[in-house]
Write a structure and sequence with these properties.
It is a single chain. The chain folds into two domains: 3-152, Response regulator (Rossmann fold, 3-Layer(aba) Sandwich), CATH 3.40.50; 168-363, Alpha-Beta Plaits (2-Layer Sandwich), CATH 3.30.70. The protein has twelve helices and 14 strands. It has helices at 24-34, 47-56, 73-81, 100-108, 121-153, 158-165, 169-173, 190-194, 199-219, 245-270, 304-315, 325-330; strands at 3-7, 16-20, 40-44, 61-65, 91-95, 113-116, 176-187, 223-228, 231-236, 277-292, 297-302, 321-324, 339-347, 356-363. Strands 7, 8, 9, 10, 11, 12, 13 and 14 form an eight-stranded mixed β-sheet that branches. The protein has a six-stranded mixed β-sheet with strand order 1-3-2-4-5-6, with helices on both faces. β5 (91-95), α4 (100-108) and β6 (113-116) form a beta-alpha-beta unit. It starts with a strand and ends with a strand.
Length: 364
């Protein structure tokens, strides 16, 4: 038996402390001092046994003696910090050594605190409680950040999420005026098709469609701002700035239509429901950022450019991509334009004050 368990509480969520000391009298003293506290205590009488105990059931905190035969406390701590599963466990060194160099070495090995013998109960308890609280706070923030990262990663590509982690939150959450490119896409006639499908068929069709579309947007580092039934809205140039947002959106639109056609062909061969896709793209000034209530937020773009992209999408025929001159001009392609751009003339749209020259885009 490599360790002794001192269960001082019946609470299942009580903090677990591993006490490591090769002197039984010291272990008994520490148990006597901590028996009134809310801990589950285990004791190990050597460094090797301490590592085995920690690996088998990682504790919340370790009280570690320095002077032990075969493997001293410094070596034990070095092994703990080299183990990805154990490296975040706070280690409090315990020792009769009271020289500054001893303490410096202990902290250099990764210890979070240093208690000199003989022990004072109030000091011991205060230090344990402090480091248990710090560990709990770190875990809470880690879990919360992990959850937020997971949730936000469902809206942006992994590459975008990685860049966002390296930048201040205020940089991409605040509302601000910014030029970007907005892309809308939806399936033509899906509303009427859905009247012929049962709920399970509708769900399967939409999920399958969106899986393909999200991948296409992510390939161009765009952001899915919202899912809108049988369509979606994507932003290029937000949440972080992209100098080439027009170019990315145009490439994405062609990629989207190509991928969607493959999806249509596959579903047609299997006798599954489908509809062709219309895409609208517009570039211009928007107001972009996060807004909402204290418990529900949405990151999106607002304004004329968004409305125009939506109208272009609605006007687009099956398999068509519509955009405006500004998007083409600001794409900044050098030499020959890589897409065929055919003007459809100036068109008027609801809630758009002046007629807009519209271009149909296709791959050359």
């Amino acid at each position: 038996m490599y360790s002794v368990n001192y269960d001082t509480t019946s609470r299942q969520d009580a903090p677990k402390i591993l006490v490591v000391d090769d002197t039984p009298a010291n272990l008994e003293l520490l148990f006597a001092m901590l028996k009134e506290c809310r801990y589950k205590i285990r004791a190990a009488i050597s460094g090797e046994l301490a590592l085995q105990a920690a690996r088998n059931d990682p504790p919340d905190l370790i009280l570690l003696d320095i002077n032990m035969p075969e493997m001293n406390g410094y070596e034990v701590c070095r092994h703990l910090k080299a183990d990805d599963k154990l490296k975040d466990i706070p280690v409090i060194f315990m020792s009769a050594l009271n020289e500054p160099l001893d303490k410096v070495k202990a902290f250099g090995m990764g210890g979070v605190d240093y208690i000199t013998k003989p022990f004072q109960f109030e000091e011991m308890q205060a230090r344990i409680e402090t480091h248990l609280a710090l560990k709990a706070a770190k875990e809470y923030l880690k879990n919360k950040n992990g959850f937020l990262e997971y949730m936000f990663s469902r809206f942006v590509s992994p590459k975008v999420a990685e860049i966002m982690k390296q930048r201040p939150t205020s940089e991409f959450l605040k509302m601000e005026s910014r030029e970007l490119t907005v892309l809308f896409a939806d399936m033509r006639g899906f509303t009427s098709l859905s009247n012929e499908l049962n709920p399970q068929e509708i769900q399967e069709t939409l999920n399958s469609f969106l899986e393909v579309m999200v991948d296409c947007v992510e390939e161009s580092d765009g952001m899915i701002s919202s899912l809108q039934g049988d369509g979606f809205m994507a932003l290029f140039g937000a949440p972080f700035r992209q100098e080439d947002h027009c170019r990315r959106a145009l490439h994405a639109s062609v990629y989207i239509q190509e991928a969607h056609q493959r999806w249509v062909d596959e579903r047609s061969a299997k006798g599954r429901p489908y509809r062709l896709l219309g895409v609208g793209i517009a570039t211009g000034e928007t107001v972009v950022g996060a807004y909402g209530t204290h418990n529900r937020m949405e990151y999106t773009a607002l304004g004329h450019t968004v409305n125009l992209a939506s109208r272009l999408c609605s006007y687009a025929g099956a398999g068509e991509i519509l955009t405006i001159a500004e998007t083409i001009e600001k794409a900044g392609f050098s030499g020959e334009f890589p897409f065929a751009a055919v003007t459809k003339g100036k068109l008027s749209f609801k809630n758009i004050l002046a007629p807009v020259e519209v271009f149909s885009i296709s791959k050359k």
